[in-house]
Amino acid sequence: MNKTTKTFTYIIGIVMTVAMVGSLILPMISSQVGLGDSYIETPQPTPFPEPTMPPPPDTAAIDFENRYLHRSGLFTIGAPTGWQPATDSNTVDELRAGLNNIEAQSVVELRISKNFAGVADADSLSAFIDDAWLGHTWSGYSGWDETGRKIVGDEVVQIDFNLRRGRSNLIARQESWIEAGDIYSARVVTAENASQALKFLLGGLASSVERVSEYADPPYDWDAYFDNLDKHMVRFPSSWEVADAAPGLPATIKGDSVVLVISTLDVALASEDEAVDWAENWRAGVKAGGAEAVDVAGAAGYKVSYRLSTLDGAVASGMMIMLHGTDNRLHVANIRMPDLDEDLLDADPAEYPWLAVVDSFRLLPNLEVSLQ
After folding, report:
1. The domain 59-211 is classified under which CATH number: 3.40.1000.10, 3.30.470.20, 3.90.550.10, 3.20.20.70?
2. What rounded mean pLDDT belongs to the chain?
3. What is the mean pLDDT of residues 314-337?
4. Residue 102 CA to its chain's centroid (Å)
5. 3-class DSSP state of 307
6. Strands lying side by side in the sheet with 362-363
7. CA 221 from chain center: how many Å?
8. How far is Cα 163 from Cα 144, in angstroms, rounded to an integer?
9. Residue 67: what are its φ and ψ, rounded to 5°?
10. Which of 22-36, 82-96, 110-124 has the lowest mean pLDDT?
11. What share of the chain is helix, strand, coil (3-state, %, to 5)?
């Protein structure tokens, strides 16, 4: 190879090397021209997904035919189709029942409050339902705002709300009124796209409330046992417990050392003497004391006091109330206290306040209940 050819070969090699290096470096330089120190792209935060609102409930598929009995036994409400019992409570001054529909993000609620403030009309009721009252009732939500308030028909205080629970936005409406001296508040919560369903649900709830009229001026903070088959009810302090019960079978309730048994038998009694005889044959060791005829909320029957002696010499005192039902059966509430020797028919009720439990026994043949 002569000198000229060798020189030419070197030149071609250098040119090709420069071209190859340039093809790699130039794109990198050109992509960063004009970016200065900010050529690195700033990461963008991942957006949170917006909460999905359920479709509004189909009101054509909702009725209020199922009846829900509050734990106090003092009232029932119509349970909208698809809503299930969720929370209820009873204190000295308020009864509260709540049902929810998780899929629809909806709650219906009724409160009956003692009117200790002496509220007499819609204007004073509106003043009574202030921010403090509302804040207490909305404590389960992360935020709430009142968006409107008016008095409807000179009797009902209607209040609208926006609510927040987590990242969900909800709406609500409450209607409050005075009835039989108590304060009633019906409330419905729905997703924010279900305003028409909200109005439908509120109207159905408010119109479905029914008090159990057989109880006049009862303690609010007592629970109730209702046999939906035999149709009898008894109320007792909420600290007591139902130990054993089933529809149509005897129920045992215990509390404060007292035992209460509710039962139904195929027996008919025609006189106080027959009531005494039946009580003494109820079990061995029973000696009846006094007896008297009674009429309890339209059901006729008898009260019998007794003493129960056991084989080991212990004594208990008790009281039975026996009522004839429209089913031609005898409904019996039998309460007894161990280690007591007293004729309870003549006893001072203030000394034995648990006697008020047996006095709360009622036959309710027309009470229809689907949910308890």
Report:
1. 3.40.1000.10
2. 90
3. 97
4. 14
5. strand
6. 222-227, 232-237, 362-363
7. 14
8. 4
9. -105, 130
10. 22-36
11. 20, 40, 40
Are 59-211 and 229-363 equal in CATH topology? yes
CB 63 within 8 A of CB 81: yes
Q: What's the whole-number mean pLDDT along residues 49-68?
A: 89
Which stretch of DSSP H or E encloses residue 279? Answer: helix 272-280
- The set of long-range contacts for 181-184, using a CB threshold of 8 Å and a minimum separation of 24, is 181/115, 182/112, 182/113, 182/114, 182/115, 183/111, 183/112, 183/113, 183/114, 183/115, 183/119, 183/125, 183/128, 184/110, 184/111, 184/112, 184/113, 184/209
The reported pTM is 0.84
CB atoms within 10 A of CB 332: 23
CA distance 222 to 236: 5
DSSP symbol at 219 = -
Name residue 23's amino acid.
Answer: S
CA angle (304, 309, 310) in 5-degree steps: 135
Question: Taking the CB of residue 286, how many other CB atoms lie within 10 A of it?
Answer: 18
User: How is domain 229-363 classified at the CATH fold level?
Assistant: Protein Transport Mog1p; Chain A (3.40.1000)
Q: How far is residue 12's CA from residue 15's CA, in Å, rounded to a whole number?
A: 5
How many other C-beta atoms are found inside a 10 Å radius of the C-beta of residue 172? 23
Is a pLDDT exceeding 50 seen at residue 70?
yes
Spans of all domains in the chain: 59-211, 229-363
Exposure class string for 25-59: b at 16+ Cβ within 10 A, else e:
eeeeeeeeeeeeeeeeeeeeeeeeeeeebeebbeb
* Residue 181 in this model has a pLDDT that exceeds 70: yes
pLDDT class for 21, splitting at 50, 70, 90?
A: very low
Strand 106-113 vs strand 251-255: parallel, antiparallel, or unpaired?
Answer: unpaired
Distance CA 264, CA 10 (A): 118
Please, are residues 97 and 88 in contact by the beta-carbon 8 Å criterion? yes
